[in-house]
Amino acid sequence: MTRYTHARTASAVTALSLLLAFSPHAQAASDPDTPTLGADLDGLLDAGRHLNPSLQAAALETAAMDAEASAADALEDPTFRVNSDEVDRTSGPRLNKTYITVEQEFPLWGKRDLRRSVALAAVDAARGRERAVGLELEERIKGAYALYAAASAALAINGDVGHLDRQMARNAADRYAQGLGSQGDALTATAEAARTEVEAARLMADRTAAAARLNTLLARPADMPLAPPTGARPLPASTPPLPVLADRARADNPRLAAGLAEVRGAEEERRLAAKAWYPDLSLAVGAIQRDNGPTGYTATVGFRIPLQAEPKRAKERQAVAKANASRQSLAATAADIEGDLAEALAALNAARQQAGIYRAQLLPDLGGAHEAALAAYGRGQGSLAAVLEAEHRLHQARLDLLRIEVEGQKALAALERLVGGPL
């Protein structure tokens, strides 16, 4: 019983040491150059919005579309003409006259308004795509941070178990030296301590990989240091039902918003293509200079005659096909979003239920079984194999809980991307 008490005390001390080591305040106090980025999710999300090149590229594409839309309804450049001709006369010397004119074409029948509407729809679609890129980036950062926090927590758990395993190995060796235990128990305890060290190496690799993924999303070198995480955000106690989430997605999902804008723009392009059969107006004004006469003035009115029918029909067919394709694409996007919503909601609910069972029943039961096996071994009434088996099952259950919570975090991040914001 005394050895069991010492083991529990050492385990508690180790856990407290690990918690202090992973505390951001302790890190900052020990090293003034310790990074703060990575300690919490909000800081990573904010950094991603400012640093991720994909999001910056999407923002620049939106700016380009906006710049194009600002001049979509502008008139074409006017045409300046100089024409030299002779004065009509039947006799006498040849006299010259010069026409200096400026000609401007004016689209009629609402064509300029339609062009502007098409351009503004393209801007709205670009804004939707930019926001979608931002939400997808947030989802990836949330998932990577969940892995980073889970790996850090798993390392703390493994360190606690490793300390206890080493204590058990020393106890088994002492018992064997005193003739109270078997050599098999001593070797088994040593092997279990080595297995825990192997597990620690694997978990360290998992945390390094998660940190590299976070750095990549932030456009930083993969090996840049990150602050130890303070812990993953808790899963929500409840979530809205699927119909409510679907309504939010229809209202706020940026992919749907972009699709609606593309449909609107395609419809305006179809209307604009139909207007090609209507002629545009050209106006020209100018002055006439004569060699031996007064200056005169000239004015011209012209119309573009829509004689080439085939290009116009082809443009109309293209516009109709594009409008239909946009509508079909929007319907497919809406169906995909609804299916993804149902899948993510089911995954989140399952993770929340499993985590609740683990915390309320499984972990307490396994913890009690481990304590009982450890106490029996301390009194010389149990076997080392039973202690190690109980410890392994408890350790694995704690790691399984972390894995379940990561799956829940990923499902939550997917839901937030699909509905266009936090739940």
Describe this structure in words.
This protein has ten helices and four strands, in the order ααααββααααββαα. Strand 3 and strand 4 form a beta hairpin. The longest helix is centred in the last third of the chain and has 70 residues, at 309-378. It is of the alpha+beta class. It has a single domain (2-419), classed as Up-down Bundle (Outer membrane efflux proteins (OEP)), CATH 1.20.1600. The protein has a four-stranded antiparallel beta sheet with strand order 1-2-3-4, with no helix packed on it.
- Strand percentage, roughly? 5-15%
For CATH, the homologous superfamily is named as Outer membrane efflux proteins (OEP)
Q: Give the count of structural domains.
A: 1
Which class best fits the helix and strand makeup?
Answer: alpha+beta
In spatial order, strands of the major sheet run 1-2-3-4
Which architecture name does CATH use? Up-down Bundle
**What are the segments in which pLDDT stays under 50 over at least 5 consecutive residues?**
1-32
What overall form do the CA principal axes indicate?
elongated
What is the CA-atom radius of gyration, in angstroms? 37 Å
Largest sheet: 4 strands, antiparallel
Protein name: Transporter
Family: Belongs to the outer membrane factor (OMF) (TC 1.B.17) family.
GO molecular function, one term: efflux transmembrane transporter activity
Keywords: Signal
Can you give me a brief rundown of this structure?
By secondary structure, the protein is an alpha+beta fold.
Topology summary:
Layout: H1 2-21, H2 24-30, H3 41-51, H4 53-69, E1 79-86, E2 96-106, H5 111-177, H6 183-217, H7 242-252, H8 254-274, E3 281-290, E4 296-303, H9 309-378, H10 384-419
Antiparallel strand pairs: 1-2, 2-3, 3-4
